[in-house]
């Protein structure tokens, strides 16, 4: 995200330092090198020049499954799940945020690797339950859950509903009472921190739609109301401060304020709430400029912060949970495109058009996000060419990678891959211009299989019933 995209910072919020450097404009030393921080774990360039993932040549993947396609490294996905689970250990819970990318195969992998799942819509809930995630390991989020979503979640027995508003406290309480259950709930609070990221994905400053503000006393009032309702069991407080965050300072402020509320609750009601959830939002490397922390270090930092704050407030340390989405799935996938046309603007840049675009990755257009890109169907000895990788949609903002160096001998038919597209690309994909959303192909140990198939024109026309 460019610096210019950042808002000046709202009032009532502590603005934290930006944890991200601006993209470099110098060409990399070796255009054929693949930075392991940006690429999925099993991606390799073979001595012969092409790129493989999970032991499979990307040219074979393109031939078999077509382009554009999201290619997901299942080995890497599972390894990241285990890294997060092991880093947080048995006395904490990791909820994968399904909004980053969800399908049945992913639900099964999460289940097998011992993670829980955060869902934020009826569709995500149906996917989770349909693929066998035990309901008690599911948390339901959302700032405007429908009555139907609430009923399905309570009816299924989800382990946690994160309440977001005063109205919802009443709705969930009535639903649970009617269904004869005591629903475990957390309250989502906004702690007044603006994690320095793009405005649309920063969520804990107070001038935004999510949660109950701590500063205005809304959160304390919400606790009072929930505690009076027999059909709700208040287990803890939730805070999510934003996304693509590199700096732990935001979590520190958030934990301090959440623990402060726990202390207030103890003082006012004589109860120590047993859980806190610090949300997701941990950043990943989209380019070599980004340097994200490892799950182990993140877990240690969060535990230390929470323990310290609880000691200060003379509270028992509550059970901690976190909700990483991007940090698990983001780096595990790349989007494979075929180059169609090139347009050279002498002395400026070359526009490289690929067979997808803003319909499969809206993040560049929406957040000014930065991505990397590489020629993957062969290596090239050619000098670097300043390029802009663009899609095939009918608008000039249809940019996939704003500034990238690609080999000057690039031509139609070459395959390009854009790494770190596992999160918020397929899940935010659209049918703009009646584009068909690409498949997700999972690779593991030399085998590839489609886990989400490519849309067909029939799929599109099926909805058009006029
Ligand atoms: N928990 C809650 C309550 C959230 O709202 C989110 C993300 C997460 C966890 C997971 O955050 P993550 O670890 O993936 O950053 N479309 C944007 C991101 C929106 C995130 C919304 N909430 C993007 O493409 O960057």
From TrEMBL:
Entry keyword annotation includes Amino-acid biosynthesis: yes
UniProt keyword annotations, A-Z: Amino-acid biosynthesis, Decarboxylase, Lyase, Lysine biosynthesis, Pyridoxal phosphate
CDD domains, alphabetized: PLPDE_III_DapDC
Domain Orn/DAP/Arg decarboxylase 2 C-terminal: 335-422
Top-rank EC class of the record's enzyme: lyase
Biochemical pathway: Amino-acid biosynthesis; L-lysine biosynthesis via DAP pathway; L-lysine from DL-2,6-diaminopimelate: step 1/1
GO molecular function: diaminopimelate decarboxylase activity; pyridoxal phosphate binding
Binding site for pyridoxal 5'-phosphate: 281, 323-326, 424
Region of interest: Disordered: 1-32
Active site: 394
EC number: 4.1.1.20
Pfam families: Orn_Arg_deC_N, Orn_DAP_Arg_deC
Protein name: Diaminopimelate decarboxylase
Gene: lysA
């Amino acid at each position: 995200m460019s610096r210019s995209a950042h808002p000046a910072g709202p009032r009532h919020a502590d603005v934290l330092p930006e944890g991200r450097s601006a993209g470099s404009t110098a060409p990399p030393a070796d255009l054929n090198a693949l930075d392991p921080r940006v690429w999925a774990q099993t991606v390799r360039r073979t001595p012969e020049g092409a790129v493989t993932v999970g032991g499979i040549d990307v040219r074979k993947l393109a031939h078999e499954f077509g382009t554009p396609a999201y290619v997901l490294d299942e080995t890497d996905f599972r390894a990241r799940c285990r890294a997060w689970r092991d880093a947080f250990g048995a006395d904490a819970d990791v909820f994968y945020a399904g909004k980053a990318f969800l399908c049945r195969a992913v639900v099964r992998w999460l289940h097998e690797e011992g993670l829980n799942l955060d869902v934020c819509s009826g569709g995500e809930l149906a996917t989770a339950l349909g693929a066998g995630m035990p309901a008690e390991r599911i948390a339901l989020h959302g700032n405007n859950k429908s009555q139907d979503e609430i009923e399905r979640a309570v009816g299924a027995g989800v382990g946690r509903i994160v309440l977001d508003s005063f109205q919802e406290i009443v709705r969930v309480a009535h639903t649970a009472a009617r269904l004869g259950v005591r629903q475990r709930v957390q309250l989502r609070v906004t702690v007044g921190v603006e994690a320095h990221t793009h405005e649309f994905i920063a969520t804990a400053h107070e001038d935004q739609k999510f949660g109950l503000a701590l500063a205005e006393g809304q959160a304390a009032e919400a606790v009072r109301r929930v505690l009076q309702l027999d059909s709700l069991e208040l287990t803890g407080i939730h805070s999510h401060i934003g996304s693509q965050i590199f700096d732990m300072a935001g979590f520190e402020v958030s934990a301090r304020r959440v623990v402060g509320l726990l202390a207030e609750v103890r003082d006012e009601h004589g109860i120590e709430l047993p859980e806190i959830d610090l949300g997701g939002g941990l950043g990943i490397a989209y380019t070599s400029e980004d340097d994200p922390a490892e799950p182990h270090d993140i877990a240690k930092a969060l535990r230390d912060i929470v323990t310290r704050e609880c000691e200060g407030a003379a509270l028992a340390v509550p059970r901690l949970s976190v909700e990483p989405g991007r940090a698990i799935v983001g780096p595990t996938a790349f989007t494979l495109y075929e180059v169609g046309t090139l347009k050279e603007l002498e002395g400026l840049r070359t526009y490289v058009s690929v067979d997808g675009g803003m319909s499969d990755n809206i993040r560049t257009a929406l957040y000014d996000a930065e991505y990397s890109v590489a020629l993957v169907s062969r290596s090239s000895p050619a000098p670097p060419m300043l390029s802009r990788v663009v899609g095939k949609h009918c608008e000039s903002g249809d940019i996939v990678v704003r500034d990238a160096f690609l080999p000057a001998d690039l031509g139609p038919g070459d395959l390009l891959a854009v790494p770190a597209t596992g999160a918020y690309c397929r899940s935010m994909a659209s049918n703009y211009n009646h584009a068909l959303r690409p498949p997700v192909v999972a690779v593991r140990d030399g085998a590839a299989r489609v886990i989400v198939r490519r849309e067909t024109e029939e799929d599109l026309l099926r909805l058009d019933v006029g």
